[in-house]
Amino acid sequence: MGEHTKRHTIEWHDPLATAAAVKEMSGLEALRAMQRGEIPLPPMTLVMNMRLVLVEEGHVVFSGEPGEYHYNPIGSVHGGYASTIFDSALGCAVHSTLPAGDGYTTLDLHVRFIRAITHETGRVRCEARVVNAGSRIAVAEATLYDAGGKVLGHGTTSCFIFRGRG
Amino acid sequence: MGEHTKRHTIEWHDPLATAAAVKEMSGLEALRAMQRGEIPLPPMTLVMNMRLVLVEEGHVVFSGEPGEYHYNPIGSVHGGYASTIFDSALGCAVHSTLPAGDGYTTLDLHVRFIRAITHETGRVRCEARVVNAGSRIAVAEATLYDAGGKVLGHGTTSCFIFRGRG
Amino acid sequence: MGEHTKRHTIEWHDPLATAAAVKEMSGLEALRAMQRGEIPLPPMTLVMNMRLVLVEEGHVVFSGEPGEYHYNPIGSVHGGYASTIFDSALGCAVHSTLPAGDGYTTLDLHVRFIRAITHETGRVRCEARVVNAGSRIAVAEATLYDAGGKVLGHGTTSCFIFRGRG
Amino acid sequence: MGEHTKRHTIEWHDPLATAAAVKEMSGLEALRAMQRGEIPLPPMTLVMNMRLVLVEEGHVVFSGEPGEYHYNPIGSVHGGYASTIFDSALGCAVHSTLPAGDGYTTLDLHVRFIRAITHETGRVRCEARVVNAGSRIAVAEATLYDAGGKVLGHGTTSCFIFRGRG
């Protein structure tokens, strides 16, 4: 590609090994094991340069630092970056409420982009909480902040819960 | 990280050079120049292994091939992958309606995940069309398909249009 | 309330009798029976001055004529009017795909308001189609038009399907 | 319609007189004047049997009591009821942040229905707060509760702000 080409290398472990380990634990145990590095982080976390900074039942915080390689064609970080961190934080907030043997899948993700994210934004922080944990459906909402506490976006999700798949 | 570590390297060009070139053209010209490789693709396109396969006024198709490095912790491709391809296709569909000098920003993205995407899904295809191109706000919708034509997801967006910034 | 007061009276039949009749039929049968007037329309249909104008499997059209009594405090028809017609058309499109014994409940409704609706808009028409009818979840989308075919809004929904409750 | 017919009559004042009065005031003044009964409530409020119970800057609470005339064909209160109360509370929360001369229009409404509402639910309460009041776009979120504090639904909106139309 020539001299102006930049490079970034992602290194990861087998995500199916992570998924198999996650399945044996409650959501809270699995997320805390990932946070402590006892289970390898899933590769998309590395692609997005994100990490899990807080895990409680129904409440999860991710942070992330977007790079130049997350840019869109119109001069800012691609909306897919914020969407990915919202999807992670919202899904994990729901996951944190589930006992071992239960699983979930995300039905939808709705992200409202409030301020543009650029290279200069630095570290962002996505705080998610469960609004309602029903027997079949869980609803969660999250807010994305910059380091100074300014709101960058808001997101919500509905997840479908699979019960008793132990 | 040891012997089980896998690696993927992304190589890209300066996205601000792409953004500067894009600004001088109509949306249709800019997207077609990217499709023909005359303007470097923005890095997020490469991170997600996507490409622009069709560009018409108000109608854009992206395809993408998710890899293992796009996995989440629960055994499938992260929802951020589909969200990114939806955001790209929907935003570019809106962009394709804009004359030179106008710009846009995405206000929100709503993605409905219909079937899980895994490593075996292969190439996916996101077809977006503009529902309404207003003077200030444009609305677009898109459907994501697998290679066999099965619906994987549905997405919608609203974009804010900046007029007359030439 | 004095001489400037206006009045509108709604007359309806017991909606639980309608619901009981609906339960015995497939979705398509129930909707067609309502369209032909063999089952009383549910009261909200009358409150919103709506009617079912087309029913096919996975495709439903409602029309409605908003009145002054549907106004909000800022000089136009309340967003709840369009929301109600979208919710009806989208839910009925999903319902039209269900055999007798199955039921559904709406998980979420997302409405994008494109043009304001006023007293002068006249009759509006909401065309809904099912995007995907899964075993547990169905997704539908709809467009709202004025009499001249201008797009007034766009909506989507996800419904949860209860199987085999006959 | 025969002996089983039920009737409900709505009485209202000219909503354009309300809209004209609202235009002269800040959002907070207009909403408080409606709450105190100094400006007639808009008719849709009466159609839905709702009232404004709390107005602060960026924070609004509506309550409502659905009746049998708000029923859908499947045995519960129509989703349009909750949608209308969400649209009212969210829009008024945004309105409460606007000075005299500014206006707003709702771009989209997203409602997540968490528990079914029936005749027996009684009074519901919708609490809305502004997430971000930008110069052009405001985002708000709201939660709907029953009298016992159970969550019935969650909603979000984006509104477009018209500045300086005094």
Structure description:
4 copies of one chain form a homotetramer. The first copy, chain A, has 166 residues and is of the alpha+beta class. In chain A, 24% of the residues lie in helices and 37% in strands. A 6-stranded antiparallel β-sheet of chain A has the order 2-3-5-6-7-4. Chains in contact: A-B, A-C, A-D, B-C, B-D, C-D. At the C-D interface, β1, α1, α3, α4 and β4 of C face β1, α1, α3, α4 and β4 of D.
List keywords for this structure.
homotetramer, 166 residues, alpha+beta, Thiol Ester Dehydrase, Chain A, six-stranded antiparallel beta sheet, 7 strands
What's the short version?
4 copies of one chain form a homotetramer. Chain A is α+β, with helices and mostly antiparallel strands.
- Domain count of chain A: the total is 1
Of all chain pairs, the largest interface belongs to: A-B, 59 and 59 residues
List low-pLDDT spans of chain A.
none
Radius of gyration of chain A: 16 Å
Structural class of the secondary elements of chain A?
Answer: alpha+beta
Write the layout of secondary structure elements.
Four copies of one chain form a homotetramer.
Chain A: E1 6-12, H1 15-23, H2 27-35, H3 43-47, E2 50-56, E3 59-64, H4 79-95, E4 103-113, E5 124-133, E6 137-145, E7 151-162
Antiparallel strand pairs in A: 2-3, 3-5, 4-7, 5-6, 6-7
